[in-house]
Specification:
With 291 residues, this protein is an all-alpha fold. The protein has 14 helices and no strands. The protein has one domain. The longest helix is centred in the middle third of the chain and has 25 residues.
């Protein structure tokens, strides 16, 4: 009895030439380098990484998400004592505790986003070196967790306004605008920090110090009216300053500040976001080799 071996016929050469890989990786330039549509194609991965970050953030902690409210409450209490009682600074007619708590809400939204995005690449080095996906997914996946923290703190803010009998005005409708600008500024700075941290881990040590200095260089715990007039120009070069003032104005209806400086801060924010995106995409091709 003879055994026979059947060999499938080879595919025609024309079909072999037409067959293409599922993903073709090519260098791009200009606006095409951002390729935000590819991020949308991998949205399931973005949602998965974001949900993982939320679930693991307060895992094995006794108080869990209570830390989101407890930390700014303690900081607001310290600021109220130091700046409100000891230094006797003005809070624009608003109780000093919720005045500083509102500033901390805006600043924490900014600084938490910068910190999480800054460490998003080095914290996921095993994914970058082994799996292909748009690297922009990793920084963007850090944003939802900071938004959840902000929403929890906003609920606490509503409770404090009820306790102190502070009524919101129509200006609260503009609060999402300042939130969006704070997030865009944070994403731009965070992308630059994340890109540099892949090659220079010193950025991970410099970034917390930079954010700490920035908190005292911004009207988080004090009114902008207390800044000396001769230093006001240099002070307003910080784009975070007019945004925090506008954020607090939307909650309490206090002074909005100088509109030209607010417009300048908006333009700088958009510029920082674009610089962050393009610098990230420019250095992206070296991430897997260096990290």
């Amino acid at each position: 009895m003879n055994d026979t071996l059947t060999v499938p016929a080879a595919a025609p050469a024309s079909q072999t030439r037409e067959r293409k890989p599922f993903v073709t990786i090519r260098p791009t330039a200009g606006w095409q380098a951002l390729n935000l549509f590819q991020v949308w194609q991998y949205r399931d991965l973005l949602i998965s990484l974001a949900s993982r970050d939320v679930k693991l953030r307060y895992k094995q902690t006794a108080l869990g998400i209570v830390w989101v409210v407890l930390q700014p409450l303690i900081a607001a209490g310290i600021f109220s004592f130091v700046f409100g009682k000891v230094a006797n600074m003005s809070s624009d007619g608003v109780p000093y505790f919720i005045f500083s708590f509102a500033g901390l809400m805006a600043f924490n939204l900014f600084t938490n986003t910068v910190g999480k995005i800054g460490g998003s690449l080095t914290g996921n080095a095993h994914l970058i070196s082994k799996v292909f996906f748009p690297r922009l997914i990793l920084p963007l996946s850090a944003v939802p967790s900071t938004m959840i923290d902000f929403l929890v703190a906003s609920g606490m803010m509503v409770g404090l306004m009820v306790v102190y009998r502070v009524s919101p005005t129509w200006t609260v409708c503009l609060l999402p605008v300042w939130m969006a600008l704070l997030l865009m500024l944070a994403v731009g700075i965070g992308l630059c920090a994340a890109s540099l941290m892949v090659s220079y881990r010193d950025v991970g040590y410099i970034l917390p110090v930079f954010l700490q200095i920035l908190m005292y260089a911004s009207p988080v715990a004090y009114s902008i009216t207390k800044v000396p007039a001769n230093l006001r120009f240099w002070y307003d070069l910080n784009p975070l300053s007019p945004l925090i003032v506008a954020f607090r104005w939307s909650i309490f209806g206090t002074g909005l500040g100088d509109l030209p400086h607010l417009a300048l801060a908006t333009g700088v924010t958009l510029l920082v976001l674009l610089v962050g995106l393009f610098s990230f995409k420019r250095m992206e091709r070296r991430f897997a080799d260096v990290i």
